[in-house]
Amino acid sequence: xxxxxxxxxxxxxxxxxxxxxxxxxxxxxxxxxxxxxxxxxxxxxxxxxxxxxxxxxxxxxxxxxxxxxxxxxxxxxxxxxxxxxxxxxxxxxxxxxxxxxxxxxxxxxxxxxxxxxxxxxxxxxxxxxxxxxxxxxxxxxxxxxxxxxxxxxxxxxxxxxxxxxxxxxxxxxxxxxxxxxxxxxxxxxxxxxxxxxxxxxxxxxxxxxxxxxxxxxxxxxxxxxxxxxxxxxxxxxxxxxxxxxxxxxxxxxxxxxxxxxxxxxxxxxxxxxxxxxxxxxxxxxxxxxxxxxxxxxxxxxxxxxxxxxxxxxxxxxxxxxxxxxxxxxxxxxxxxxxxxxxxxxxxxxxxxxxxxxxxxxxxxxxxxxxxxxxxxxxxxxxxxxxxxxxxxxxxxxxxxxxxxxxxxxxxxxxxxxxxxxxxxxxxxxxxxxxxxxxxxxxxxxxxxxxxxxxxxxxxxxxxxxxxxxxxxxxxxxxxxxxxxxxxxxxxxxxxxxxxxxxxxxxxxxxxxxxxxxxxxxxxxxxxxxxxxxxxxxxxxxxxxxxxxxxxxxxxxxxxxxxxxxxxxxxxxxxxxxxxxxxxxxxxxxxxxxxxxxxxxxxxxxxxxxxxxxxxxxxxxxxxxxxxxxxxxxxxxxxxxxxxxxxxxxxxxxxxxxxxxxxxxxxxxxxxxxxxxxxxxxxxxxxxxxxxxxxxxxxxxxxxxxxxxxxxxxxxxxxxxxxxxxxxxxxxxxxxxxxxxxxxxxxxxxxxxxxxxxxxxxxxxxxxxxxxxxxxxxxxxxxxxxxxxxxxxxxxxxxxxxxxxxxxxxxxxxxxxxxxxxxxxxxxxxxxxxxxxxxxxxxxxxxxx
Length: 848
Hints:
Strand order of the largest sheet: 1-6-7-8-2-3-4-5
Number of helices: 29
């Protein structure tokens, strides 16, 4: 018996023929000795506040890898038994799971041993991110049931606050309020980008600025006029709020025409709304609506006369628009709107997109490198998926990619957006876009056309502003379209969650052997699957399709976008994971009432933190980005709008090697990394060289200064020697032997060499003290006269010339008077105290 739980129609997609090749995986489970899984040591793999609900030992059939599967309050996590590493293929957030089925299969065997035939207990998990996972559990245990029950509880929380994004303590939000960012974007469009709003100005109603053509209105501040529109609207300046209230009644869900983007240089606008309520006879009119739409057509600028043309782009096929008339809707009549032309783009509804993605996922699973049953597409059933070598059959099999219709739908959205951008850029025409409710195809076309028209939206910050404005503020129902928890309840009633069933009703038309789908007929050994949820048709990958369109533009214009394809994949994974509160609920009104922003973490901050770890070398940045190369509108011709599969997203699970970036891009990124490393090394070397140069210059200056001081000292020493020689001669003329020594002689003084204390004071001649600080050493000794006369020269002089000589012939020297007269008489006045204080550093010895 097989049991399934799906977000759409119940169906069992795994059969005996799919898994016949997985016997090795089953054997690996059967032969293991592990009876009960153990979750110890798992904390290193868990996120903050992530807790385990259930676990079970299993084999990931896709890659034949044994390990343990854990169900936490955030994700399904598969840990390899051999490497003890998290396997990305087997790890998927609970909110990203579209359906999961519990299947029991008996292996083929003869009737004589049917009672001994082992059964295979499988759990199939289908994700919204293009993957199909199959786990095989050991027979005879309740591990699969435990995992299945935990998935039931985890994927369908009863209350809003049971979601992981609210239980995580990392939900503290320091980012600006989404309302503030919306008003700041309006300011930029009005040409007032230097003005920054704040939550205070919004609460006080001071954000309502305007220019010559448009103004910001707060008519929907309390969401009473339109519950799915933002609190602030950009409207023509000539239209009053009372007229807006009248005009909203003529549009479905009161989604009246408002401006999404405007060109302040030309006055052209890109507006959006829902379908008009023209009634069954298509004859209902509204003056307020016609005046509002007419106000979008301002006069042409640059001296051109007349009013600009208005295009009303209906995204639906014409027959669908007419069919809506039976329910009161429909489309405008060109005769009721001034200078207007109405065009139909023929883009299919949400149901066609949903079924198309299911067919694409099945095609990729069937023809991938390894399918969910673990077998290569080259070997399955003898190679029938490749026509068994028959080229015509193989071509027919591969052509089923086109049968999925996904690429055709992507091309239609791209073509419609390019046409809108061309009319606005080339004709300066105004454009009003709508579909039925104005929140699915309308949002795709308007946001993609804005991306083509405005280079700011092709930056990372601009991309955030675009998504928050056109997708979040203008009420794309993310809860319904992405199968996320939805808001319900009001006032004091607890906020409940209802998990919308989102899978299409898959018909049996895909079960033929020639179909590429992995949905094959149930084996006779399987019982029909029973559903645990009520089906719903609200699920549709509208936002995923839009991001796919952005990736196609990135492929066509690799120099025009600041962000890379890796950024788009990570961004889309974050949206689908429900880990952040930005994309919960169906409108801004619901998120405000639920308090989502204050209580949950911010996706944009998470991505910014990822980029901050590596700077501009992070994989989120497009290494080929050159804003000067595409500084205006991108207007792709129709011939260039041929989409291909988005490898990084569509092929990453079925063809992982082909899903990687192209070899050229990978090589360029590797070279860029090496270049950045070399640049850092170069900057470091230049800094070191500058430091060394500074040090050398400092040393050179010091040496030059020392050289100058040395030269000055030598000059002073020479001058001192000359003066010393003069002094020596003068003293010797007195009859003394004089020895004048320089510094080196003093160092070699016998007393110094013997270690004796060198005298600091010495009496010379007149008894004046000698200072050791002087650089001049003068020693005067009195020696005996070598002449035969009885007296020396001084005595003879004194005898003959001294007027103070006593009568008895005695000499009164060294009396002061005698010494003074004697000095005058000899012709030398010796100041011994000056000699003692003499130094070569005195100004007396400075060079002339």
